[in-house]
Amino acid sequence: MTHQDGNVTPIPDEVGLLYDAVVDSAAVTMGKNLHFGYWEPSDSELSFDEATDRLTDLLTERLRIGPGSRLLDIGCGVGTPGVRIARLSGAEVTGISVSEEQVKRANALARSQSSACRAEFHQANAMELPFPDASFDAAVALESMIHMPDRGQVLREIRRVLRPGGRIVLTDFHERTPLSPAHRAVVNQLLQDIMCTMVQVDDYLRLLRAAGFQFKEMVDISEETVRRTFMALAERAAHMPTEVLSKLGWKSNPADMIDISGFGYLLVVAERPMATG
After folding, report:
1. Residues 202 and 210: beta-carbon distance below 8 Å
2. Which helix (H) or strand (E) holds 226?
């Protein structure tokens, strides 16, 4: 479904097929992680791969998990963040993705680690989580909410599978400032290429409340993530073989996104309330 702003509602099966098809090309372009980097300060000398790990760590610090905890990784990609979290925190990680190929790669990565790293991955739809109520201590959604056709439904499902007091830590794309028509056209092309949508900041307060979460933190980390990520991707794309880029099938150019300040990156933390009475 196409919205008035040009965004197209993602369809989970199609998102899964997209990532099945581009898993190798995306790895060449994006590196070991398929998400943005985090540089603090914004002129930090971290490489792109180091900065993507730093973003994983930034979310992990807010999960409040450790040995004995069970973490749900929503939209696990090829498993790099989930395996990193399991290895560094000692938590047991269960990841899901709608992409069959990503799940295969993620489980292969987990098997390559020591037995102390407890992580496993399954093909599943976050709109209908295949887990019992109150079965996880925390959940992380690193750049996966962007692909969800109904963020509210996903949040309700996450709340259901979290134990009372359990945290959800997520990132999402948001419209930071009003986009000019020219910038909106560029952003909409990117959103169409990677089958995602963006939100308004105020949407999250409403979505969290409606899903039964208590809001804990919301931070605009655009300055630390967006420009440097698109600069890194533009540099990599400039050196990519034509056949690799053509397999991605994207019409957008990361270089066109570098100076679009209205495209924002949001970090959100919420908790399932403790049981009362």
Report:
1. no
2. helix 222-238
Q: How far apart are CA 260 and CA 231, in angstroms?
A: 12
- Other beta carbons within 10 angstroms of residue 61's beta carbon come to 10
Backbone Cα Rg of the chain: 18
SS3 label, residue 232? helix
> What are the residue ranges spanned by the domains of the chain?
12-269
Q: Which helix (H) or strand (E) holds 190?
A: helix 181-193
SS3 of 132, please? coil
Number of H helices, E strands in the chain: 9, 7
175-213 pLDDT, tens per residue? 999 999 999 999 999 999 888 999 999 999 999 999 999
Homologous superfamily (CATH) for 12-269: Vaccinia Virus protein VP39 (3.40.50.150)
d(Cα 190, Cα 39) in Å, to the nearest integer? Answer: 22
Output b/e per residue, 12-42; b: 16+ Cβ within 10 A. Answer: beebbbbbbebbebbbebbbbbbbbbbbeee
Whether 240 has a pLDDT exceeding 70, the answer reads no
DSSP label at residue 128? G
